[in-house]
Amino acid sequence: xxxxxxxxxxxxxxxxxxxxxxxxxxxxxxxxxxxxxxxxxxxxxxxxxxxxxxxxxxxxxxxxxxxxxxxxxxxxxxxxxxxxxxxxxxxxxxxxxxxxxxxxxxxxxxxxxxxxxxxxxxxxxxxxxxxxxxxxxxxxxxxxxxxxxxxxxxxxxxxxxxxxxxxxxxxxxxxxxxxxxxxxxxxxxxxxxxxxxxxxxxxxxxxxxxxxxxxxxxxxxxxxxxxxxxxxxxxxxxxxxxxxxxxxxxxxxxxxxxxxxxxxxxxxxxxxxxxxxxxxxxxxxxxxxxxxxxxxxxxxxxxxxxxx
Length: 308
Fold this sequence. Notes:
The protein has nine helices and 13 strands.
């Protein structure tokens, strides 16, 4: 099982019922939840570890992931409120305003998380849960606890407006990425992590030097690149798509990549270090193909396997 660890929230999606007015529709979201849902719909064995509220939105989140074949055994329930993210769309590009104080997803401690079963072979971390205390420290501790024996993928999915202490956030990310096997960043993430005037290849080299075996850089309509410590570099073009919005695109790419590696029995610590170029190319292409289906739909609505 791939266990996705991190944010599950409600995206308040804007609609215009009448000219000059805006209303919001609550839809399940969060980078980690989206990745888990996409994995479940692709047929990969997956679970979600996150804090969930007993409130109406938490019930909506639980029903959504269960419908998408995501295991719910690792949900951590509480009476705290659900995180809300109000979405603004400009030419299909999403920006967010978060309401996350004292939320069920944020107020976690490593003591809340029991030992993981042997069935969990890989863990995925990412999203705003890596930026907000105390959950961020909880997930960092969980990664450190499990990284020696399980594959770890990290996608920081950086939201600069959400970061209160940039220096501490960078230090935490550096520690987590150093212990990860796979790190995926967007080109925007890469430039935030390394703002100095260097080429992307130089920045990727710095990221690989931290410790991951594989670094993936996504570039929107310019495709994606995979870089390995053994010198392998694979570029794949973006899959053709008619873009409605980009909500959940990167999360779905993550799921496509992980699902294909799992399907090909390559999701182990030793195999990630020695991925053949052909396998990496196949996995990156699958991520791009799945993401293209998502951007053609409104909101984070990953495709089911039969839709590919």
